[in-house]
C-alpha cells in the first residue's frame, strides 16, 4: 500500500517538475488531470507538429488537455478537437482560453472512431492513449495490441477522412509496423523527437505531410 502511494506521488512529481516544458503559460492557471499530466505533448514539440500540419481544417482526434489543439489553432484555419472524456475537454477549453485561441477551436465530446463518418478535414492528428505511463515496459510497442482501440485500425479508419495523417507514437514503437501503414509504394516519414538530448517520442507523417525532399536526400 505504502509503495503504491509512493509510486503515484513520484510519477506525478516527475511530470510536475517539467510543467513549463509542457505549457510555457503553466503559471497562468493551466488545468490538467492525471492522464493529462503524462500524455500531454510538450509545447515545443506541439509547435513543431503544428507547423508541419499547417492546413485549412485539422482534426485533433484525441485532444486531451489541449497540448496540440492549442498550437494547431495558430497554424490552421479551423481546428476540430475531439475527446471522449468530459474533464479533458473542460481542461482543453480552459487552457485554450489562456492561450487566447478558444474561439478558434471546435470542441467535440465523443468517440473519434464513431464520429469518423461525419468528419471532413485536410489533416488528421492522432495521439491516442498508449495504455498508460508503463508503455516502455515492453521492448517494442505494438500499435495493434497496445493502443487500446487498435492503432492499425485507427489509422485505416482515419484514411476515410484523409491520407494526410500525423501519428504521435512512443519511442519504442515498432518502426516496421508504422512504415507498413503507408501501404506498398508509398512513403512514410518518421521523426524522432528529442528533448534536452533525450529521445522522447516519434511522429510518423503520411500522405502530403511527408517532406519528400528530405526523404529523398536522406534515403
Ligand atoms: P514519458 O515517457 O511518460 O515521460 O512520456 P518521460 O518524461 O519521457 O519519462 P522519462 O523519465 O523516461 O524521460 C514522454 C512523452 O510521451 C510525454 O511527454 C507525452 O507527450 C507522451 N506520452 C506519454 N504517454 C504515456 C502518452 C499516451 O498515453 N498518449 C499520448 N498521446 N502521448 C503520451
Ligand atoms: N495530445 C493530447 C494528449 C492525448 S492523450 C495533448 O497534448 O493534450 C489521449 C486522449 O485520448 C485522452 O485524453 C483520452 O481521454 C482520449 N481518448 C481515449 N479514447 C478516445 C476515443 N475513442 N475518442 C476520442 N478520444 C479518446
From TrEMBL:
Reaction catalysis annotation: a 5'-end (N(7)-methyl 5'-triphosphoguanosine)-ribonucleoside in snoRNA + S-adenosyl-L-methionine = a 5'-end (N(2),N(7)-dimethyl 5'-triphosphoguanosine)-ribonucleoside in snoRNA + S-adenosyl-L-homocysteine + H(+); a 5'-end (N(7)-methyl 5'-triphosphoguanosine)-ribonucleoside in snRNA + S-adenosyl-L-methionine = a 5'-end (N(2),N(7)-dimethyl 5'-triphosphoguanosine)-ribonucleoside in snRNA + S-adenosyl-L-homocysteine + H(+); a 5'-end (N(2),N(7)-dimethyl 5'-triphosphoguanosine)-ribonucleoside in snRNA + S-adenosyl-L-methionine = a 5'-end (N(2),N(2),N(7)-trimethyl 5'-triphosphoguanosine)-ribonucleoside in snRNA + S-adenosyl-L-homocysteine + H(+); a 5'-end (N(2),N(7)-dimethyl 5'-triphosphoguanosine)-ribonucleoside in snoRNA + S-adenosyl-L-methionine = a 5'-end (N(2),N(2),N(7)-trimethyl 5'-triphosphoguanosine)-ribonucleoside in snoRNA + S-adenosyl-L-homocysteine + H(+)
Cellular component aspect of the GO annotation: Cajal body; cytoplasm; nucleolus
Presence of keyword Ion transport: no
Subcellular location: Cytoplasm; Nucleus, Cajal body; Nucleus, Nucleolus
Similarity comment: family membership: Belongs to the methyltransferase superfamily. Trimethylguanosine synthase family.
Protein's job: Catalyzes the 2 serial methylation steps for the conversion of the 7-monomethylguanosine (m(7)G) caps of snRNAs and snoRNAs to a 2,2,7-trimethylguanosine (m(2,2,7)G) cap structure. The enzyme is specific for guanine, and N7 methylation must precede N2 methylation. Hypermethylation of the m7G cap of U snRNAs leads to their concentration in nuclear foci, their colocalization with coilin and the formation of canonical Cajal bodies (CBs). Plays a role in transcriptional regulation.
Subunit field text: May form homooligomers. Interacts with CREBBP/CBP, EED/WAIT1, EP300/P300, NCOA6/PRIP, PPARBP/PBP and SMN.
Protein name: Trimethylguanosine synthase
Species name: Gigaspora margarita
